[in-house]
Amino acid sequence: DTKMMIPSAMTMAMTMTASKTTTFHHAIPTSRLGTSHESLVSYNDAVSADSLQKQNKRDDVPTDFSLVVILSPNAHLHDDDRCGNTTSNISILLGKKLRGFGEGFYNCFGGKLEKSHGEYDHPAKGAVREVQEETGIIVPLSVMEDGFMGTINFTFDDCDVNRAMRVQLYCVFISLSHDAKYEISSPKGTNIERSQQQYAHTPVTVDPKQIRGCDEIEPRWFHNVHDIPLDQMF
User: Which own/partner contact pairs does 49-56 have at CB distance under 8 Å and 24+ positions apart?
Assistant: First the structure.
């Protein structure tokens, strides 16, 4: 069965967000959302024999993607263009699409896995590649593998037009520093220290100047959960 595991920091963020009334101006109509699947078995059962026959004519079905959530316990200390007030120890890096599908909207980082690069068999490689291309952040392959959260499967009624999607979800914590030997120093017992301990197995130190976008996406930090542009995400 497919299992989803979300870091405690993100769980807290989602809980806080749920308590805030939000109007989603660009929400997809319920009629287009399809059916959610609690397990991979349920997902497979939902795909009819007819749709499977159509999809099996393609070599790369379902279409495989990576999606990477990038969090930081100290990004607010290095961000000159802060979005909103800083009320949380955890910041999230989102990308604003500059062109193509989702233009003008935010999402995390990732993209289609490349079969020719061996990413179908090793999707973490695709996640590393996409993050570097879209943010300039170099995440070691072992760190990305440790940050694997689960698999999200999508099916569509018009499967002959929109093939099924399989998304490999990752979460990595980064520490921003102008000094490569920099280590976060936090008072004992603080939320930052607890977050460091929880994610100590996935340390990535990044120079703030290293983070840059590309012609397709612009990275931007959000330091307050209530400032995350949920009504501008896809």
Answer: 51/159, 51/160, 54/159, 54/160, 55/159, 55/163, 55/164
Residue 51 CA to residue 56 CA, distance in Å, equals: 8
pLDDT tens for the chain, residues 1 to 234? 444 444 444 444 444 444 445 566 666 677 666 677 788 777 777 765 445 555 555 444 789 999 999 999 988 887 765 555 555 678 999 999 999 878 999 999 999 999 999 999 999 999 999 999 999 999 999 999 999 999 998 887 776 677 788 999 999 999 998 774 433 333 344 444 444 454 444 468 999 999 999 999 999 999 988 899 999 998
Question: Which residues 6+ apart lie within 8 Å of 183 measured at CB?
Answer: 175
Q: Which amino acid is at 141?
A: L
Bridge partners of 206, per DSSP, are: 176
Report whether 39 contacts 151 (CB < 8 A): no
CA separation, residue 157 to residues 2, 36, 40, 165 (Å): 21, 12, 17, 12
Phi/psi region, residue 26 (left: phi>0; alpha: psi -120 to 50; beta: rest), is alpha
Q: Is the separation of the CB atoms in 176 and 75 below 8 Å?
A: yes
Q: Is the whole model's pTM more than 0.70, yes or no? A: no
Distance CA 183, CA 84 (A): 26
